[in-house]
Amino acid sequence: MKEWYNKINEAQSVDALEEIRIAVFGKKGILAAEFAKMKTAPNEQKAQIAKDLNNHKTALMNEFTAKKIALQTQELQEAMKAEAIDVSMFSTKSSAGALHPVMETMDRIVEYFSSMNFAVKTGQIVEDDFHNFEALNLPKYHPARDMQDTFYFKDEMLLRTHTSPVQIRTMLESKPPIRMIAPGAVFRRDYDLTHTPMFHQIEGLLVDEEGKVSFANLKFILEDFLKYMFGDVAVRFRPSFFPFTEPSAEVDISCVFCKGEGCRVCSHTGWLEVLGCGIVDQNVFKAVEYKNVSGYAFGLGVERFAMLIHQIGDLRSLFEGDIKLLEQFQ
Ligand code: DAH
In angstroms, what is the span from residue 222 Cα to ligand 1's centroid? Predict the structure, then answer.
């Protein structure tokens, strides 16, 4: 029996101790074997043998329990030491920061049109009714104003709903020919998966002598631009309506996610709408007192481009300032 006390005390791990427990207390263990031997012992010794065996059983069990607690405590402490995290340690990771994906996309778009000799104009974020609506052939009470509800100040001042007023400002301050783009923030009373109250647009305007600017010119530059942005995509022009252009078109590219096969992002049409454009309406030229000219214009949402390029599902996440999301674009 003595050796089993030693074995228990010398066990190195909870697992090793468990094996000893089975060898001592198990059905085929040594205690069971000793009790079995009792049957063949002389009758007058049986009581004494049973008493001794029961004493050993209790003593061994006490040893075992004490040892088990000691081993468990030791193993826990070792694990805690091995997995310890020093929360007071300084991080050596540093970041130089990076452009926000919307700004990066805007830069790429500006880069393309700069290379095509378009000047970059900024206009102003707080606009008046004349530049934002009236001069763009959107008179008061025109139903197309409904889609562009915004934030108003007094004296008919408002947060611009699109970058189109920069067309008007540029034409009023200079003479044709004009080739300009206008990147910047715009505001609308919208908030859902694909709309935020503030977003960014890039406007384009080209004006030259009457008869010099055609829809073919517009089509060429937009197709070239969209291939520059999205690679080898198909481009399609759909007739549409904007008050400031006539004729007007909306431009689609083949879906960048499913390559035109049809998926959830393109609502199973195979196409994604990316911008609006058209031939400048003569009423717009009248408002800025331009005569004998022709021109084309276009406008696009920068966030939409950034979402398609980076495969971002929820537009609002771009403005939540979540470092984990933004870091992915560094
Ligand atoms: N301003 C339009 C909008 O915000 C976009 C647009 C469409 C601009 C057609 C244009 C254009 O210059 O020709 O929805």
Answer: 14
**End-to-end Cα spacing for the chain:** 70
Taking 70 as the pLDDT cut, the residues of the chain under it are none
For residue 201, report the distance from its CA to the centre of ligand 1, in Å.
9
pLDDT of residue 315: 79
Q: Which residues line ligand 1 (CB under 6 A)?
A: 162, 164, 203, 242, 245, 276-278, 297-299
CA 324 to each of CA 19, 34, 76, 243, 320: distance values in angstroms, whole numbers, following the listed order: 49, 67, 34, 42, 11
Task: Please state the atom number of ligand 1 nearest to the C-alpha of residue 296.
Answer: 13
pLDDT tens-digit series, residues 75-127: 999 999 998 888 888 877 777 788 899 999 999 999 999 999 999 999 999 99
Domain positions in the chain are 2-83, 101-329
Q: How far is the CA of 298 from the centre of ligand 1 (A)?
A: 6
Overall fold of domain 101-329: BirA Bifunctional Protein; domain 2 (3.30.930)
Q: Is pTM beyond 0.85 here?
A: no
